[in-house]
Automatic annotation (TrEMBL):
Entry coiled-coil feature ranges: 329-370
Regions crossing the membrane: none
Organism encoding this protein: Runella salmonicolor
Initiator Rep protein WH1 domain residues: 23-164
Protein known as: Replication initiation protein
Record family assignment: Belongs to the initiator RepB protein family.
Keywords, sorted A to Z: Coiled coil
Gene3D superfamilies linked to this entry: Winged helix-like DNA-binding domain superfamily/Winged helix DNA-binding domain (1.10.10.10)
Length: 469
């Protein structure tokens, strides 16, 4: 069963990798501390959208100059100088991440290279970023990068990623110092009024104008007279706005005038008919019919099946039945291609649905875990001792899972026995004890308080045709 789920996840990730509008980022990367400009951020996200997340190692990312110019809204004749300056700065930008297991400091890029004759750049991500961008199994966020194209500040881009990360929960809470640390602006905006005006409100204004999600400050939480934390409410944008599509770098088709048509066609059959004959064809028959007649005749010439090539050409070009037959064949081929595209679109849609279902389950588990940890942090010793006693009673009655949960409880010399810290340590480690504690908190002790959160996920689950609980 596990391998089947892994296979579905792999296919879903592959579908995201092939979608030019979608990218997936590990949440640790979203929650890392770094400081880059909006232009650098857009360049970085454009590169991430080109990463094949199904691979085990990074491949070089190739991007054309025109892509940078249109994607990042850089309107200058000195485009090469701008890109090289931004690329070099991006290469030197560090990123810092820390969790219960690691503390990591690395660079976003390991190298960039400009190919003078091809007019393009290749970039390489730092290998330390592989766990955050490749072979993602859980704890990641998928979004459409058209949401950030028109954003002018890096703060707005980062807040959009945070809103997207916690979208299913509908809210998130962060300390003011935590936000400043993520954005690397600890030494800026010492005054909360300035921080709120130039960081929070500016980001909110941009997201409300240009992105599918924005936020409101639900509550300012104070410690004494100082605002210490902010609770954000995530809002789906009901305003209709135009997204800038990603660039299309396909070279435009060449449009030839009538004299060019004559020259091109005559160049194919100049050994057999005069240019005046070609001019007459163009006055009598559709271009496609002429091309079909010529192609069919030249195939027969190549097979040594005809002697009077000029006469045969005249007959085939004028043959409406040959033209109609070829058009019919092309129509059938196109119908087959359309059906194939529809089947592929349906498969991609199913893979995307499965990816969203998997992420919803992961988000719901994280919500229950966070809720449980919050109650442990704010609860007293009686809460913890009652739970241990609850497991012991069930164990004595022969309940196997309760016995397994007690056996799964791990002590740590860093924490006092049965302390809040040791309980939280066990919750974060997962396993049967964590599962039992989460069930005890969200399904029994604080069921009514958790119910609004559960309803949010149940509603989203119905939209995705799954049941989460």
């Amino acid at each position: 069963m596990a391998s089947e789920k892994d296979d579905k996840r792999h296919k879903a990730i592959l579908a995201v990798s092939k979608d030019p509008y979608k990218l997936a980022k590990g949440n640790p990367l979203i929650n890392s501390s770094f400081d880059i400009t909006a232009i650098q951020f857009k360049i970085l996200l454009h590169m991430i959208s080109k990463v094949d997340m199904s691979l085990e190692d990074f491949q070089p990312i190739t991007i054309q100059i025109s892509e940078f110019q249109k994607f990042a809204n850089i309107n200058t004749k000195a485009i090469y100088e701008v890109i090289e300056v931004q690329a070099e700065k991006l290469k030197n930008k560090s990123i810092f991440y820390e969790d219960d297991e690691i503390r990591l400091s690395t660079n976003l890029l390991s190298s960039w290279k400009y190919h003078k004759k091809k007019g393009c750049y290749t970039f390489r991500f730092d290998p330390e970023l592989k766990p955050f961008l490749l072979d993602l199994k859980e704890n990641f966020t998928v979004y459409d990068i058209r949401n950030i194209i028109q954003l002018d500040s890096a703060y707005a881009i980062r807040f959009f990623e945070l809103c997207k990360q916690f979208e299913n929960l509908g809210r998130f809470e962060m300390q003011v110092n935590e936000i400043k640390h993520l954005f690397k602006i600890e030494d800026k905006y010492k005054n909360y009024y300035d921080f709120k005006k130039y960081v929070i409100e500016q980001a909110r204004k941009e997201l409300k104008s240009y992105s599918e999600l924005y936020f409101d400050i639900d509550k300012e939480i104070k410690q004494g007279r100082k605002v210490a934390s902010l609770r954000f409410k995530i809002i789906k944008n009901k305003k209709k706005f135009e997204r800038k599509d990603l660039i299309d770098i396909t070279p435009p088709a060449e449009h030839n005038n009538e004299s060019n048509d004559v020259q091109i066609i005559h160049s194919l059959v100049s050994n057999y008919v005069a240019v005046e004959v070609v001019e007459k064809w163009l006055s009598l028959y559709p271009m496609e019919q002429i091309n079909i007649g010529i192609s069919y005749t030249l195939e027969q010439v190549k097979a040594n099946k005809i002697k009077d090539v000029g006469g045969y050409l005249q007959t085939m070009v004028a043959s409406k039945s040959l033209y109609e037959e070829e058009v019919k064949k092309k129509k059938l081929k196109e119908e087959v291609r359309v059906k194939e595209r529809m089947v592929k679109a349906k498969v991609d849609q199913q893979q995307q649905l499965e990816l969203e279902q998997q992420q919803l389950r992961s988000d719901f588990h994280n919500a229950k875990e966070s809720f449980t940890i919050e109650k442990i942090e704010n609860g007293n010793e009686e809460l913890r001792s009652n739970f241990i006693q609850y497991l012991q009673i069930r164990k004595d009655k022969g309940d196997f899972l309760s016995a397994l949960s007690l056996d799964n409880y791990k002590t740590d010399p860093l924490y006092p026995k049965n302390s809040k810290e040791e309980f939280i340590f066990n919750i974060k480690n997962g396993g049967s004890f964590a599962a039992s504690m989460i069930t005890y908190i969200v399904d029994n002790l604080y069921k009514e308080e958790f119910e609004p959160i559960r309803v949010t996920y149940l509603t989203k689950g119905k939209e995705l045709n799954i049941f989460v609980d």
